[in-house]
Amino acid sequence: MVNIGDTAPAFTLRATDKREVSLSEYEGKKVVLVFYPGAFTGVCDKEVCSFQDNMVALNDADATVLGISVDSPWANAEFARKYNLEFELLSDLDRTAVNAYDASFVGLGGLDGYVSANRVVIIIDEAGMVQYRWVAENPGVEPNYDEVVAAVKAL
Length: 155
Prior knowledge:
By secondary structure, the protein is of the alpha/beta class. It is 26% helix and 26% strand. The protein contains 5 helices and 9 strands; from the N terminus they run βββααβαβαββββα.
């Protein structure tokens, strides 16, 4: 399990334009990883919109937000377009980051054996260390957005 104080596990995932994006590209920056179960699934819609609503505060704190799901780049691109998201959505097709960050959820929507991302928020500091970790009890629970913004600002 990735805990507070651990070095953030590296990953390379696909962006909505299919280019590879690596966590190492953000070395020396604050990064907020927002794992979400699936595009266009009610609570996920509210979650990405809530992060979008907080982008000014997060940008003011010099933080980069990266949304991560197991959805395809095409689904993520449409999700980002629909909600005019100003942050990158990444596709973890082989569940590399989901597994590395202990952010998996099995059985989303009653699909036995289907592994998606759970709703998890990780904040990584400029030194690449995990400084905040929140995990939903179940995918229907949203994070406390004010707490996330405050945690980023405190770094």
